[in-house]
Every structure is written in C-alpha cells, then in structure tokens.
Structure to design on (653 residues):
C-alpha cells in the first residue's frame, strides 16, 4: 500500500470471528515470517483495524493514525525523510485459535508534499531555458514519489532503482537533456562520417550545444481558416465598390449566392458560387432519396453598391415530364411515394456597369416519384440593361471565356447564323447526334459515327460527309466582338474556307475502299487582347479558318463478314490561337548579337563552358565536381608552365 488507508473484504459469516493486526511479523534474524498468532488486537503501533460486519461480507479497513508531514526545524512527530513509513503488516481472521484467513501488507508511504508552514520570501530562480535546460529529469512526473523507469528521479532509492535499472527511459525524456551533437568531434553517432569530418568537426563543451539557444520570441498570428464568407470587404465600414468579371455574387448575409454547377470531375456541386458575368447551363442527376432543396428564393442579393435587391420569382408547372425523367423503375402503385420538387431553375441577372439591377428567376416544379431519376437543369444568364429586342448590346464588348461565339449569314435575308460542334448521344451515331455552340476560349473536340455500306459510292460518301460537316457551320462570318451588329459589316470577319485535298487516286473498281474522305473538320479561331474596359480584358476575334483533313476509308470486315455496314468516325475540332494585338517591335542589333550566347536558341552554349563547376550540375556531388575541376585547372596550369621555353632552360641548369 502507498496511502494511509486500505480496504479489504472478508467473505463469509463473521460471527464469532476475531480480527487482529500484527506489526512486523517477519523475523529480522531468520528472514522468515513469524507464525500466526490469534492473540493479537485491533491496534498495532500507529495502525488501527476497523471491521464493518455484513450478512455474507465484512469490510476490513487498515488505517494509519500518525501524521505524514515533513519535519520542520526542531519539530517532532513528523516524517524526517520523504519516505515516511516502511513497514510490514499482517491482518488475521481467527475463530478461536484457528486461522481462517490472513492478509500480508507491505506499506511504503511517502510524506505529503503540501506545505503548511510559513512561506519563505526566497523565490525559486528559474533558469533561462534558452541557455540551460529547464528540467534536468523530464520523466520525474510525480512529486514526492519515485517514478518507475525514471532513473534520474532523485526520490527513487537504490533498492527501487534496482527493480527497473535495465529498463530506464532513454533520450531527453530519460534525463539526457544535453546529448552530444553530430558535429562534435567526440561524437560517433553519425552513421556516415565523411572524409573531411576530422578537419571540420567542433571541439566544444556540452554547455555550448545547438539544442539550446534556438528559442525565437516573436509575435504569433492565429491561422486564418478559409470560409464561404465574403472576401471582398476587409472591414464592415468599407464601401462595396461593385462587382468585377468573375467575382462571386454576395447575399445580404455576406455569403455566396450559390446555384448547383458541375465540377471538374463532372459531378454537380450544390453550393457552387455564381460568378459575375459568367453564364452556364448545367444538368444534374438526382432521385427522390438524395434530392435537396437549394438556396431559398427569398434571399436578397447585394447589388454591388451595398444595396440589396429581391429576386423576382415566377413558378410554373412542368407539362412534359418525359424531358426530365430519364429512368423509371416499375413499382406497384400502392408503394410509390411522390413529392413536388424543382425540375429546373432559370436565373436572369440584369446588370449595368459593375452593379446588378434586377434578378428574374423562373422555377419549374413537378412531381418526382420514388424509383425515378430526375435530370435537373440550372441556367444562369447575364443580360445588360441596354438590351433591346433580345439582341444583347454589351457595354463590355469583348468576348469572355465560355460565352458562345457569334456567327452570322450575311448573304441571306435572315442574318442569324450558328457555329456548332457535335454532342453525341446514345450509340454515338451521326443520325442521333445533337449539336452545341462553340464557346469562346474553349478548345473542343467531338465527333460521331457514320454507318457506311460496303457498296457505297466514293463520290457520294465524300458528299455525304462534307454535307454533315458543313451543317455545323451555318454562317459566312464570325463576330469580332460579342456585341457585333448585323448592320455593320466591319464588326464581322469572313470565314476562310480551305477545300479538302484531292489526290485523284483511282479505286480501280474496288468495293469498300475510298480515299480522300474529308472526315475531320478543323476550326481555327485567331484572337487577341485589344484592351481593357474597367479592368476587364477585351478579347477580339481576328480571323477564322476552316479546313478539312482527309482519311482513307476501308471496309472493316467483322467475324465472318456477314455485316455489310462499316463505321466511319467523323470529327470536328476547335482551336483558339492567341496572337499579339500589335506586331512585336523589330529585333535590335544587340538582341541579334545576344542570341549567339542564348543557350536556349543555340546548340553551342559558351556561358555553360564551366557547367560542371556550377550549382546547376547535378550529375555528381558538388564537392567531387569541384575537386575534379580544380585538379583539371592545376594540370592545365602545369602544362602551360612546362611548355614555356624558360622552364626548359631552368630545368637544364
């Protein structure tokens, strides 16, 4: 036991049982315990024995009656040392002279660490931990007691240390607070000792150690946790200066205005912020179990001038659910659970300069039942306040990335044109493929598959493929800017068309073989940044070229050649090429001379003549390359000296 009180239990009927306690029952000379004597009492020395009888169990309590305070000067009846009590006790339960049970107790009790005397004015001096270890024994965790396996604990007696002398804590925690460091000459702890270590090692006492003196008393800053709060206002009093292109739209609660959008992985993100002047049209799949409502439509939006505008919401019912329900499981009518949900949301932001003037929302509602998969649609469109008759006259005239490229057919009475690429669906056949507009700044590549018969005429096949490719380009001109007017011819650039190459190779009457099939449509759009309006870069289309790449179609015979149809993939690619708005200045004479020493433009690089001696060379350790370089320089110098005529004369003498 290590405390002044211990409890135990006697099992059985305690009537007629005599309990007694014996102090030091071991014979000091023989080293054996004395025979049990039932004639003892319930008090022995400073120990008392109390018994609380019960029905079938009796509680036996052994307690110490003396004080455990450390002795003050000239004090008695106290503990002269921290280890106050070291005694052996024996508790006996006898019925008459027959011993029924006995309990052996080894008591090692330390003095209390609390101090009740007068407080001394001598304060404990704490050393500067930057230059001297604050605690010489970190494993000494218990005051006034011996910590097991802590060999540096001064409160552990030699007898106790022998019990765990072979399992002491090592390292700094075990008391080695100032270990020898690797740079010390007497240290052998390094697994790999370089050759130069004896010349550059440190001779110093352990008081001068790199483990001390590295404390930096500087200001600390709390880390900033990113959140979906508004990053545009640094202080509540700062006025809101309006939106710029790409800034997230903010609500009245200083949070992002979110609409579900597609991530880079193709999945829909429900809390995606809406960016200013960025249009999008996304579709998201959901079912009744995973359906979640979006942002409430009563949330007010910051207009850009610290004013808040309310959304104008119009609710409509879906009449044709087949356009949105893509899959349905056959369930019994009694088991089907339906709910009124949002099928589509269309947002129109009316803007002017850097502010939002109005927000119109059209919400389409319908019934979604359990077991059905819903394709939700979310669109966001930004319209300028000066738009008239559906034709958007932007104050921001340049193209923005992700917006459709404007096309026109100026040779027809209806100038409205289109520039599209394929959007295959189902099996990917051209017969069922739809189209989508070409988006500015977005390189695209799409295609579809055309079924060709083995007896197909080559001329007819070329015309059929060309017709399908030309159907994507229903235009003669492309708008230079996003606000190009149909009435001004200078706002448009004519599409340059390059006819497909014809090699005039004769098929010789072979079936299933056709050369020079224009199966690839290449659309190259050249644009440049011509300036900026209110800090927004203005991008303008300079030229558009359309060309064809030809392939050789050959009928692919399947297993047994039973199928007379073969598949011909035809593709369309769009590439945006950025060029300087103005031609670069001519190359000066200095630049021409400098190009001779430019390592990126010449095979011979004179500045890298001593490349192995620089830090950029990583083929071998820098010390080895430096040593080899110096040795080579020594040989060159030695050769130069020995080849001199005066050296030969001196040698002959």
């Amino acid at each position: 036991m290590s405390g002044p009180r211990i409890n135990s239990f006697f099992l059985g009927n305690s009537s007629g049982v005599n309990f007694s306690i014996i102090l030091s029952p071991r014979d000091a000379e023989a080293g054996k315990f004395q025979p049990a004597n039932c004639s003892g009492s319930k008090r022995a020395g400073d120990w008392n024995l109390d018994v609380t009888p019960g029905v079938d169990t009796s509680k036996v309590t052994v307690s110490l009656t003396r004080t455990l305070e450390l002795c003050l000067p000239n004090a008695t009846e106290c503990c002269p040392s921290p280890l106050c009590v070291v005694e052996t006790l024996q508790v006996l339960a006898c019925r008459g002279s027959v011993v029924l049970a006995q309990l052996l107790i080894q008591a090692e009790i330390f003095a209390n660490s609390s101090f009740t005397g007068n407080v001394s004015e001598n304060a404990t001096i704490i050393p500067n931990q930057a230059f001297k270890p604050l605690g010489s024994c970190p494993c000494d965790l218990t005051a006034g007691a011996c910590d097991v396996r802590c060999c540096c604990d001064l409160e552990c007696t030699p007898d106790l240390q022998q019990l765990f002398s072979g399992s002491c804590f090592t390292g700094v925690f075990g008391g080695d607070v100032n270990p020898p460091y690797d740079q010390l000459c007497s240290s052998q702890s390094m697994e790999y000792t370089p050759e130069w270590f004896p010349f550059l090692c440190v001779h110093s006492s352990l008081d001068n150690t790199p483990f001390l003196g590295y404390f930096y008393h500087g200001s600390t800053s709390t880390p900033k946790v990113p959140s979906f709060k508004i990053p545009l206002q640094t202080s509540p009093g700062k006025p809101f200066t309006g939106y710029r292109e790409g800034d997230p739209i903010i609500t009245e609660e200083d949070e992002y205005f979110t609409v579900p959008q597609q991530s880079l992985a193709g999945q829909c993100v429900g809390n995606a912020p809406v960016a200013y002047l960025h249009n999008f049209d996304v579709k998201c799949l959901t079912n009744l179990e995973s359906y979640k409502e979006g942002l409430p439509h009563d949330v007010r939006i910051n207009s850009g001038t610290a004013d808040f505008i309310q959304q104008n919401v119009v609710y409509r019912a879906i009449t044709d659910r087949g356009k949105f329900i893509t899959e349905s499981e056959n369930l019994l009518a009694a088991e089907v659970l339906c709910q009124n949900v949002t099928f589509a949301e269309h947002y129109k932001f009316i803007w002017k300069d850097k502010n939002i003037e109005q927000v119109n929302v059209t919400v389409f509602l319908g019934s979604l039942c359990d077991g059905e998969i819903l394709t939700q649609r979310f669109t966001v469109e930004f319209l300028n306040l000066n738009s008239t008759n559906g034709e958007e006259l932007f104050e921001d005239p340049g193209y923005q990335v992700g917006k459709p490229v404007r096309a026109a057919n100026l040779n027809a009475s209806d100038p409205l044109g289109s520039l599209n690429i394929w959007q295959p669906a189902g099996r990917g056949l051209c017969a069922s493929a739809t189209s989508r507009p070409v988006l500015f700044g977005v390189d695209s590549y799409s295609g579809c598959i055309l079924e060709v018969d083995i007896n197909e005429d080559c001329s007819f096949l070329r015309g059929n493929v060309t017709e399908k490719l030309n159907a994507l380009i229903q235009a003669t001109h492309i708008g230079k800017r996003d606000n190009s007017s149909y009435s001004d011819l200078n706002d448009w650039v004519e599409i340059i068309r390059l006819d497909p190459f014809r090699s005039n190779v004769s098929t010789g009457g072979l079936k299933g073989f056709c050369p020079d099939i224009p199966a690839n449509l290449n659309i190259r759009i050249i644009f440049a940044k011509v300036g900026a309006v209110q800090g927004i870069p203005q991008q303008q289309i300079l030229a558009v070229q359309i060309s064809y790449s030809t392939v050789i179609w050959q009928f692919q015979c399947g297993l047994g050649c039973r199928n007379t149809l073969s598949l011909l993939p035809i593709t369309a690619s769009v590439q945006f090429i950025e060029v300087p708005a103005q031609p670069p200045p001519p190359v000066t004479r200095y630049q021409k001379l400098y190009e001779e020493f430019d390592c990126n433009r010449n095979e011979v690089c004179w500045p890298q003549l001593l490349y192995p001696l620089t830090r950029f060379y990583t083929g071998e350790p820098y010390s080895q390359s430096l040593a080899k370089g110096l040795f080579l320089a020594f040989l060159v110098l030695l050769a130069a000296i020995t080849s001199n005529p005066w050296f030969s004369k001196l040698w002959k003498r």
